[in-house]
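Write out the 3D structure for:
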Amino acid sequence: MQHAPTKSSPVMPQLIILTLFWIGLQLVATWVKDDFSHVSQYISEINATGSTAAGAFGWVGFIPLALISFGVLLTARPYLRVKGISHLGWTLLFFYPVAYFGGALAPCDLGCPVDGSSSQELHNIIAVVSYFGFALGTFLLAFTPKTTWPVRCAFVLLSVVIALGFVLMINPALAEVRGAIQRYVEVAHLVVFWLLLWLKPAEADGGGDE
């Protein structure tokens, strides 16, 4: 009888909090910033220098989100059968909280341009490294020992969605919908976190019988 991946998992409450906090951040941004667009603006522009409540969103939005995701990864580790290259994959998932810390401590300029202030330049570097680093980590999780093929394929597909999504959202030709693209990519990040539930030792053993 195969074990349900969500049973007896201390990670579940944190995953729920992470997901709800992320959704709440989007909703609060819409409420506070009348002219904010989730379709054409990046999430980092919620905390853009010179925008409404700039700085506040970093401290009460981005940093708590980073800490929650950081906690999810640390809590999950003892319950994951990752080793070798897949352990490296788990480590690279920490680029997710790094990206949100970066959004708070190195906020982008209004419009999040390619060229801008020193904070914008640092912000851009963090974004590139974080997105591709997380995508690589997701791909490497597909090599977790004795993981089922559907889960392996899901990790590979999500890694492509994240990497390709980043390339698309920074394409000037898609500037009008770059925010929407990023939201889809962010959802892919969250799905990766939820898929960690399928990498518990019982599932890594192929869902053994009791």
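The radius of gyration is 18 Å.
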